[in-house]
Model the fold of this input.
Amino acid sequence: MNFELLIQLVINGLIVGLLYGVIGMCFVLVYKSTKIVNFAQGEFLLIGAWVCWTALVYFELPFLLGFVLSLCFMAAFGILLQQIVLRPMIGEPIISVIMITIGLSIFFQALMKWIFGVSAQSYPQVFDQQSINIFGLNIEMAYLMSTAIAIVIMGAFYFFFKHSKHGLAMRATAFDQQVAQSLGISVKNVFAMSWGIAATVSATAGIVLGMVNGVSDSLSIMGIKVFPAVILGGLDSIVGAIVGGVIVGVLENVAEFVDSQYLHIGNMYDIAPFYVLLIILWFKPYGLFGTKDIERI
Amino acid sequence: MSSLTMRPCGDFRTSYKQDNTIFETKTIRMLAIATVLLLCTAPLFLDGYFLTLCIQISYLGIAALGLNILVGFTGQISLGHGAFFGFGAFASAWLNTSLHIPVFLSIPLAGFLTMGVGMMFGLPAARIKGLYLAIATLASQFIIEDFFARADWFSGGSSGASAEPFSLFGYAFDTDQSYYYVALFALVFMFIWGCNLMRSRDGRAFVALRDHYLSAEIMGIKLNKYRLLSFGVSSFYAGIGGALYAHYLGYVSAEGFTIFMSVQFLAMIIIGGLGSINGTLMGVIFMVFLPEVLESGVSVLSDTQWGNIPMVVDGLAYIKEMAIGLVIIGFLIFEPEGLAHRWAQIKNYWKFYPFSY
Done:
């Protein structure tokens, strides 16, 4: 039993899990307010990371400026996408909605590969110090920053939804669209806003991940890995997304540990969350915090 | 009404039998038989390139029809059809090489094996539907893919599995020309079977489930049984398609059966038309020809002076992928009922000509 490795892996899992939580939050946000399942979430990460990379490396902007610019770009991108592609899908059957986001995902993934190539590119150095030592554990600066950013985003979400007018409008829309509309909330704006926020926040996660591992099209896998997290937490619960994200992040690292020490099956890191996903769907399809659908005849 | 030669301008059917016929008029039946006969002579005048495409259409068409039975007729969603297709391919190769079962038996047996696996992964479908089912099948796609990469005894692991050519009574169908007949026979057989399945009690139960599952349940249709059965039938079709693919190529490797393939199957049935058997075939033909047309378009462009842009020529693979994504989005926005619906509109236009408003 290698305790040090286990603890290191659990901490890695917590850090990555917080990022899963952030991505899951965007997913839940879009699902709650627009009832659209976003299979193109991973492409938001990918596009955001590439745009920021272009700003930093190609145009050689300072980090903060490039970061903010790419976030602005992603907000506009998310709103435009909603206006052009997803608005006609309101009221369509679920298979069409799923397929249109899958179509978007294929399109943008191929486009990004076409423009930027398939090999991973790394960001310029942002921090002077690569990693720091906390309680005898080596933690990379970028990871530390990602945790900080994730917590800031979560706090911002909390503040936005509890204490701002737009957040209230979004919650009202998620609760009941017709009632919200009759109270003078522009549901169209709420839809556009939720896509804008989702794109921006996902892009932040994408940039952070890109700083750690380099930008490549493997970033878009995060969009698929977020499914176990949100299903575990419950599809329509923002708290659930965070809890689910952290659990999945820790779980895949622990699975990797158990596999490398005892089982030697291989590839557990990638596949264990999906086994968990099937088991949850079997026993508790609405997740830990999700609302149960009650159907009346 | 099959005694008529032309379709009437309205609904004059008076019995269930008339409502249920495969061919509405005599002309359509004759045309269908003539088409199949014409297709039988195709190797005489088509060259190898088009024969390859035809064989591709056959095995993909069989698998896509299975998916349409599940998605279009039963209203369930599956994002794991590509994995089941792959399972059929590996299963047939494995049955043939390890257990020495002749190929013409191993293909249907692979279908049944895939059916078992599909029903196993379809078990959650008895409890969940819609989005949750989509995600559950997504998980099964990754789990099966992982299984291919790992199970050396079954799939040959990373080196892949080799499959013997199809042979019957000592005659090996190992050329494109001869395998074309195997594929054509399988396609026609499976499509007629699909048509007949949808006319039967089980098929009507599927449609009832899709349209209003509560009413269906009240009328005595067992939800769990038919949802599971639909998964089984769809995986069976996928398995047969995959097995035909394996024995055509002679070699199966695990890389091909990704989520992208599952999406392509879904794209085929959405482009063709959900819940339409003819539409399935139209969608498959569309999706098989789309990359070929793009490729020849690019090669024509690259011969001209101004079209020889290295980015376009080198990025052909990405352009094909992007086109698939664009086509899915375009069809869903502009023609959500697919090519089958468009075809029906064209027919209506001519039927009521010149008063087709």
